[in-house]
Amino acid sequence: PNVSLFDDNQDPFPDSLNGRFILAQYSRFERWLKQVRGSRLCILEIGCGESEHSLRLIPKDRGRWACMSDEWGLAPLAASLVRIDPGPSSAPSSNPAGFVHIPLGARDALTMLAEHLSARTAERGVA
Cα(48)–Cα(108) distance, rounded to whole angstroms? Predict the structure, then answer.
């Protein structure tokens, strides 16, 4: 993974972030978004924080979500949002039905979601 932190590419870490890797990831992400256009999406937001550079999603009109920071230039996405973060979070007033907050750490929340989805799949008899 190529995780961007607040002090990347600053002294004493001038070459700590591989920008070419991020551009390649973003290109693949844009291609995927075009492939799923019109599909029902659910975004898992895992521990994004609340800084001005955050990728945390904020509600937009017509059930869409956009990054708090516009550094990526990503257009708002129509989707449901599952926010995984042990900190407090309030449901957005513009799209409360499309929002769920799981106040746990990532490992515990993802384990819980996997178990729930596995049980639902078994109930429906889907292989």
Answer: 16
- Written as six digits, the tokens of 87 are 């900190």
- Whether the CA torsion 109, 110, 111, 114 is positive or negative: it is positive
Q: Spell out the residues 6+ positions from residue 55 whose beta carbon is closer than 8 angstroms to its own.
A: 45, 48, 67, 68, 69, 72
Angle at 109 (CA atoms; ends 29, 33), nearest 5 degrees: 15
Predicted confidence (pLDDT) per residue in 12-30, tens digit: 666 666 667 777 877 888 8
Considering only CA atoms, which of 106, 32, 19 is closest in space to residue 74? 32
Query: Distance (Å, rounded) from C-alpha 85 to C-alpha 66?
Result: 18
Q: How far is Cα 43 from Cα 84, in angstroms, rounded to an integer? A: 10
Percent of the chain whose pLDDT exceeds 90? 14
52 pLDDT more than 60 = no
Whether 119 shows a pLDDT value over 70: the answer reads: yes
Pairing mode, strands 64-67 and 42-46: unpaired
Q: What's the CA gap between 95 and 92, in Å, rounded?
A: 6
